[in-house]
Each structure stands twice: as C-alpha cells, then as structure tokens.
Amino acid sequence: MGFGRKDLVGLEGLSKDEILYILESADSMKEILERDIKKVPTLRGKVVANLFFEPSTRTRTSFELAGKYLSADVINFSSSSSSTTKGETLKDTALNIEAMGVDGVVVRHRASGAAHYLAKNLKASVINAGDGTHEHPTQGLLDLLTLREALKTKDLNGVHVAIAGDITHSRVARSDIWGLRALGAEVTVAGPPTMIPPFIERLGVRVVPSIDRVVKEADAVIMLRIQLERQASPLFPSLREYSRLFGLSAGLIESMEETPFLMHPGPVNWGVELSPAMQGYPKNCILQQVTSGVAVRMAVLYLLLGR
Length: 307
Description:
The protein is built from 10 helices and 9 strands.
C-alpha cells in the first residue's frame, strides 16, 4: 500500500489504509526531529511554495521547517505584498509561481474549496493548509498521530474523542471527524446550538449540549477556538458566559476519576475555551501536537514530492 495521489486537499475520501500509511511515514520522520542535525537529502532539488492568504504562525512555520529538514528549497508567499492586491486571481498567481519551477504548493485561503480549485489547475502537487471552513487535513493528521501516541494504539477502534467549541466555523473539526471516523473512533461534538452545523450527525457523530457530560465520557478532548473572524454576528451572549458553559476548567477535570487527554489546534484563548490552570494539566498534549505537525508535514511532502 502506498500513497499514489498527486495532492492532499482533504481527509474526506481517504481510506483507512491511506491515512495509516501517512501516519506511519510520519512516525519515521519523528526520528529525524530527534537528531542533533535535523537534515536529510530526501527532497534535495525540490521547490515548495507556501501560499498563505490568511495569517498563520504554527502551520506556515511547520511547513517551512518540514521542507527544509527534507532539504527542499522553500519560498514563503505573502499576499499583502503580492499582485493579488492589484487584482490578480488566485489561479494566475499560482500558475505564475508554478512556472518558476515549483514542485509543490502549500495553500491557505479564506475561501472553502480553494485548494481543490488549484489542484485541478496545477501540475504541481497541492497541499491544503486550511480552506475557509472546509478542511485542514494536515491538522487532522497530526491530531491522529498525537492521539495514537498518547493512547499507545495503532488505530483508534473503540476510542471516544470529544470535539468541543465552534464546530460550525472550524475546518479542523471537519478534518478531525473524517480522520477519526476512518480509524474507527467514536466522535461526540459539543458546543452552543448556534455553533453546531445542521445535520452534522450525518457525518457519524453524536451531538450533546453540555461539555461537562462529554468530557466525563471521552478518552480525549479536542477544544476549539471561537472563530470570531468568520462570524457575521455574535453567536453567544458573552465570552464570560461561553467560558462558563463551554470552557474546560481545572475544577471540572479534578472532579473526575478518569481524565481525558487534552488537545487544541491553537492558538489558545486562555480563559475562554481553556482555564489558564490547564497549562499544567498532566495530560495536556498541545505541544506534542506541534511536534507531530512537523513530522506529519514532512511525511506529506515526502509522499507527494518524493514519489
């Protein structure tokens, strides 16, 4: 079993074997990150362009490091200083960059479907680094990798994972759901009714109205940031009320006999979705997710560009 696709635009439609193949490749990449010299010649001579039309710290830096650790040449594109400010289309921008000899394009864009659109129009491999509220596949993969390590299991059959927060506007939630369901996990989502998409149960998840209930049942909890920048109008009365009803507090965790692993795609709004006291929580996996992210992106670049 290999990974014969040209692009990675989402986890929807990937088979269990394909996802496991990427995760097993990422396992081997983690060994490189533990070396004193984090450099292998795998992608020497390859060129990767990071096209980010939205702000990013973790994802763009992670992709840049992943490419450099594999000896690829990496260029970072800034939309604020590009020809897109003069009216150039996304397609023309990408085609011009591809014409300079680029082998892979990592794209983040505010429009859902942007990565699919570029994948159809470019010969270069396209990797979706987040498109609107659609998907963020490498975040989903790094979450799966982190969970497998935390729970010490190859797949996630029988594992119960809760995703809490702004589900409607979260591309991370969608990729997590597709990936978790493919590996056999049970998924429950929780959040204010105004932040739960209609018919989300069709994705094979359960919806509950209370974070207290879901945290007590789950093996792991993925907390999500409120996507204020994607909301046309406020969907909850106040941050204080949201934190009280849907935030994860140390008091809630301390009242439980079996505590879940804690994850968050970042950036974290401490005091909103997570109590500041949770920074010292023993099962906090947030920084492990960051490390997993570099390994996953190294694996994806290798599988797409090194084939």
